[in-house]
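chain below, 265 aa
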Amino acid sequence: MVTQDTTVTWNHQVVPGYFRMGLLCDTGFDSAKPGQFVMVRIGTENSPLLRRPFSLFGLIREKRRATGIEILYKVVGKGTELLSCCKEGDRLSVIGPLGNTFSISDSCRRLILVAGGVGVPPIRFLATSLLENESRPDICRVFIGGRSKEDLACITEFDLPGFMLEVSTDDGSLGHHGLVTRSLEKSLDKDPADLICACGPEGMLKAVSSIAAGRNISCMVSIEAMMACGMGACLGCAVRIVDDKVHYRHVCVDGPVFDAQRLVW
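prediction:
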């Protein structure tokens, strides 16, 4: 983990309200993994006061060395609105990489990836990282959902060798008409899976967790949470975990990736 000033190399709107940003970094991201995130300072030193967390969408590489990172974000408030106004050459302070990662064993032969809305970044990073793994799963199915086609950002990024993509929208404007979890269930009724990895809204993750548990499938979820520090100091991103008893863990330092069956939804 390092704190450094980065340079904006691009900041493009990909669908209404969603932006894809590239940031050049001096060091620190060669070992970054899918699921990890960064804390970005936006604006002046004190406005907004707090940094914002963003999952890594991918790495920018030059001769196999990580020279930068990509993030994908949705404009939802003052901070992300300011971020959307950044231009090439602007400087942003970044802390990262932070958090833990998805872990896929060599024994996993049938993998399912599920993303909803702004949950696409870690799932895309995971998908592209798998291409570099000679022992990657034989079957990789990707399910992406949104309220409408305007909420489906960068889905063409999953047009990858050996990956099968299914898209769902609540209003039927693109892909299957209905919840992404319904498409997931229909697929699992036909073809089993060894592992499900998911990121998205809490309601979607809870449903995915229930589907996985009902079919005795391992499931890892990346939790989205508001964070003030990203390093466990503020204690503001607590989630409940159960093993022999219920206790609390923090998304920033113990996550953001958790075993779905250990979370108290």
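Residues 110-224 form a domain with the Rossmann fold fold (CATH 3.40.50.80). The chain has two domains: 2-98, 110-224.
thats it, cya
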